[in-house]
Specification:
Elements: H1 12-15, H2 17-25, H3 39-48, E1 58-62, E2 68-71, E3 76-79, H4 81-86, H5 94-104, H6 107-128, E4 132-136, E5 147-148, E6 160-164, E7 167-172, H7 177-191
Parallel strand pairs: 1-4, 4-5
Antiparallel strand pairs: 2-3, 6-7
Length: 193
Amino acid sequence: MTSGGIFLGENWKTDRWSKILCDRLGAEEYNYAYGGGSNQRILRQLTTIHNIDDYDLAIIQMTFPERTEYHDGTRFQQMSPQKAMHSKKIGNQNWFWNVYYKNIYHDPFGDSMEKMVYECIKNIFQVKKIPLILLSAWHDTKLSFDHMITSKVFGGKYDPVKWIGEDIDPHPNLKSQPIIADDVYKFINITSV
């Protein structure tokens, strides 16, 4: 939801809420989101790839806890139950991921992983004394986030890309992007007073 992706149209990089917000703040956007990415990816990149000392403010949106990642010998790959069921790209590993999501993964594990990543992110930014706004797209989270970016499909306030019977894409649609930017902007102003 943070990357924007093609569901926002061909101008998704300029139409996504993070770009709209940065333009409004007069800030440079650094959006490292990856469609289908996991919370583990967020933490791994924060601690091994990016130098967060260069930032004045961080706005991080966590995602669904059942998403995870693995290294295939060449690079990190993102995985989710939907990808395990529908992807032919993972080839011989498809059976493993289907078994993993049917028999190994359980919600208490996901809740635990979500809390670990959440606490690590908060502590990293606290130690570095960099302001952090922590968002989530996970409608069933038990954690306290600064703002929830969930669509009406999950009881949130943002219109989804698609919601017709069984045909659902719960990502906030193009019309919702400036509303999300405005909501996060208001939160920044409230907390900086």
